[in-house]
Amino acid sequence: MTKAVIALMISACLILGGCAGMSDTEQRSLSGGAIGAAGGAIIGAIAGSAGLGAAIGGAVGASGGYLYGKHKDSEQTAYQQGYDAGRQVQ
Q1: Does residue 65 carry a pLDDT above 80?
Q2: For residues 26 and 49, is the Cβ–Cβ distance under 8 A?
Q3: In this structure, are residues 36 and 64 in contact, taking their beta carbons and an 8 Å threshold?
């Protein structure tokens, strides 16, 4: 039991540490894919094919996370441009 807990903790640290250098859009895509895969697997298990549901859910979730990340990036860029323009007027 103790070895399993230690292995789980080490795995969690490695997985979370792998996301450290990612951009916000990449992190949103990854988390969207994971959430979509989990939701798709649950719905797929009810419908009869958990694997197919996870694959579809993961693809849709990753796409949604990517699009949302790009939207947030464009919002930040627009905000920064407006802020810089406002600073120049003064």
Answers
A1: yes
A2: no
A3: yes
